[in-house]
Amino acid sequence: MYYEPGVTPHGLPYDPFKSCVIPRPIGWISTIDAAGNHNLAPYSQFQNVTFDPPIVMFSANQDSQGRRKDSARNAEQTGQFVWNMATYALREAVNITGEELPPEIDEFDRAGLTKAPSRLVRPMRVAESPIQFECVYLNTLRFPGVAPMGAADVVFGRVVAVHIADDALDERGMIDVLRLKPLARMGYFDYTYVDNRFQMIIPGGNRAVLAGLEGSPEKANAATRRA
Q: What is the per-residue pLDDT across 94-111, written as a single tens digit (0 to 9) for each?
């Protein structure tokens, strides 16, 4: 099949676009507004951007009424947000926090989640989540789109603190991803989680390249200095 988005119809019973770029990690973003209201919402357009310094982004479309999402607005106004890892065990809570609600409704309470104080930023962390990033807001790229929901705010933040639960690490000191089962978004109403892994190492033995693949600034810089 072939179609041109927004120009020619795809002719399918469901739009295939979001099901083509999969799986997508979930940006479970907690923020606080100027009035002290807590917000927690999942975004499936989320990713790390670079590792030195560590920067992440989440993309928030407008709500069903064409308004900007609380997460984007709060991050801009307060200059802070937190990413919480969404896992298979927390899937029901993640789903509840995706509901469209007024700013004064606390999604932590609605989903039965525990607030954990952050160290360097004001937004709370999800205590039940095994990994969280405290982030300071950097900037927003706003993309226009078809009303009411098509426009998107792509919010970038620098990671200034990382929390990893002790039992999230295996005996080698690595993230035990198969035990944590990080949740990921697919298309339609479908999700998946990480339940397998395999390794591939780029050939050539370039230590800086391999350190970049690992995401280690210290090893990458040391390898570059030795070169």
A: 999 999 999 999 999 999
Strands (E), 144-187: 152-164, 183-185
Are 126 and 205 in the same domain? no
Tell me how crowded residue 96 is: count the other CB atoms within 10 A of its CB.
16
**Tokens describing residue 166:** 């002790």
- Using alpha carbons, select from 137, 131, 63, 142 the residue that is nearest to residue 103: 63
Q: Is 76 helix (H, G, I), strand (E, B) or coil?
A: helix
Reported confidence tier of residue 227, pLDDT bands at 50, 70, 90: low
Q: Is residue 180 part of a domain?
A: yes
Q: What span, in angstroms and rounded, lies between the C-alpha atoms of 124 and 117?
A: 5
Instruction: For residue 158, count CB atoms less than 10 angstroms from its CB and return exposed for 0-12, middle for 13-18, buried for 19 or more.
Output: middle
- CATH number for the domain harbouring residue 98: 2.30.110.10
Task: Say which residues have a Cβ less than 8 Å from residue 162's Cβ, sequence separation at least 6.
Answer: 54, 131, 132, 133, 134
Rounded to 5°, angle at Cα 167 from 161 and 168: 55
pTM over 0.85: yes
Asked if the model's pLDDT at residue 226 lies above 80, the reply is no
